[in-house]
């Protein structure tokens, strides 16, 4: 067993123990972060100047899947931190990278503030950087910010030109989450995946210093692996489905007669759907940006995974009835978690629309 696998096993054990002992899952990242840092799992995706060990995409996704088998919200929060620091490590200059390395040594947590409710287009952010005197200030609101209120720093995507928003005018900046100009709005929250602490952030004229501007406007387009966030969500969904299956199998063991026969047939259907989803995720790992088919492969993978986990959760609840709804295995909470993950980028409906659009385009050629 590798050092990394041992470290992941250690965190899994601590996570299970914490969930049994504490009734405040939203604080789980804070309680376990020292252990994550001690096991050197807090900087898995960074470049070689910062990371202490290399990890393949497949290995990283397996880590997420294992954590999600225990708790999907925790896995999602862990993933967002990794993606946020990966973005910084690719866009920062050398001086900023040295500062980032020091922050990681201190065990700082990083969140990602990118999404906004009702965005017209993917990069049409209403969060803006405005000129103020000799410097700049950040104004606006970000929604669905995982680790809100927990992160020490947020990687924020903003527009430098609100009148003519374009991808090449998107400025990435690093915001200190402890400053008074940063407000966590907990009235707007993701009801499921509680451990991820996903709320809204509001920036009230946050004064930016030059070292907090990461790269130049538009530089985010040169990130080498823009598919890491959705690939990780696929792995997290698969991990939550693994948890549902394991608990469902425990119930099947004590069934008899027709009930058991129907459940075994359903288990077979689950396995077929699971294998199909895994094959499409594997395809998406092999065909990645800048390959022209990368976007289509990613949407097929995310769509297949979303469909598999949601169907699995609903079937388990249908077959188990009140046992599934009220039993100790918390199937209802798992169902709500996998439903919530379907809205994460690219969301299930958008995946199906883009796939269908692509199919029609080929037919009409």
Notes on the protein architecture:
This protein is of the alpha+beta class and 365 residues long. The protein has helices spanning 3-21, 28-38, 57-70, 72-91, 94-105, 228-252, 257-286, 294-320, 322-326, 331-341, 348-363, and strands spanning 110-113, 128-132, 135-145, 153-159, 170-176, 182-189, 199-208, 213-214. The strands form two sheets. It has a four-stranded mixed sheet, with helices on one face. A four-stranded antiparallel sheet has the order 2-3-7-6, with no helix packed on it. Strand 2 (128-132) and strand 3 form a beta hairpin. Helix 3 runs antiparallel to helix 4 (72-91) and helix 3 crosses helix 6.
Q: Kindly, what is the distance between the CA atoms of the first and last residues, rounded to a whole number of angstroms?
A: 52 Å
Largest sheet: 4 strands, mixed
Low-confidence stretches: 48-53
Query: Which range does the strand content fall in?
Result: 5-15%
Structure summary, number of beta strands? 8
- The tally of helices reads 11
Content-based structural category: alpha+beta
Query: What is the percent of helical residues?
Result: 40-55%
């Amino acid at each position: 067993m590798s050092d990394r696998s041992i470290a992941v096993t250690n965190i899994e054990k601590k996570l299970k123990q914490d969930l049994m002992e504490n009734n405040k899952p939203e604080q789980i990242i804070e309680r376990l972060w020292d252990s994550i840092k001690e096991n050197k799992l807090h900087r898995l995706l960074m470049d070689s100047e910062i990371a202490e060990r290399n990890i393949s995409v497949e290995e990283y996704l397996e880590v997420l899947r294992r954590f999600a088998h225990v708790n999907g919200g925790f896995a999602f929060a862990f993933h967002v931190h990794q993606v946020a620091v990966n973005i910084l490590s690719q866009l920062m200059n050398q001086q900023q990278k040295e500062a980032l390395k020091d922050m990681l040594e201190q065990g700082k947590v990083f969140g990602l503030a990118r999404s906004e409710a009702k965005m017209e287009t993917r990069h049409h952010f209403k969060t803006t950087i405005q000129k103020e005197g000799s410097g700049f200030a950040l104004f606006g609101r970000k929604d669905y910010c995982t680790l809100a209120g927990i992160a020490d720093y947020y990687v924020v995507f903003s527009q430098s030109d609100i009148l003519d928003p374009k991808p090449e005018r998107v400025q990435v900046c690093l915001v200190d989450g402890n400053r008074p100009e940063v407000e966590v709005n907990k009235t707007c929250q993701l009801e499921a995946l509680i451990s991820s602490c996903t709320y809204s952030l509001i920036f009230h004229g946050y004064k930016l210093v030059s070292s907090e501007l990461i790269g130049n406007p538009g530089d985010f387009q040169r990130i080498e692996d823009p598919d890491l966030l959705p690939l990780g969500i696929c792995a997290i969904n698969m991990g939550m489905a693994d948890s549902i299956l394991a608990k469902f199998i425990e119930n099947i063991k004590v069934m008899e007669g027709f009930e058991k026969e129907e459940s075994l047939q359903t288990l077979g259907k689950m396995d077929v759907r699971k294998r199909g989803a895994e094959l499409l995720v594997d395809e998406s790992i092999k065909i990645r940006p800048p390959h022209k088919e990368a976007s289509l492969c990613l949407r097929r993978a995310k769509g297949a995974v979303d469909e598999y986990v949601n169907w699995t959760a609903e079937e388990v609840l249908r077959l188990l009835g009140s046992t599934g709804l009220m039993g100790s295995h918390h199937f209802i909470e798992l169902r709500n978690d996998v439903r919530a993950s379907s809205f994460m980028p690219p969301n299930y409906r958008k995946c199906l629309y883009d796939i269908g659009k692509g199919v029609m385009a080929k037919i009409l050629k």
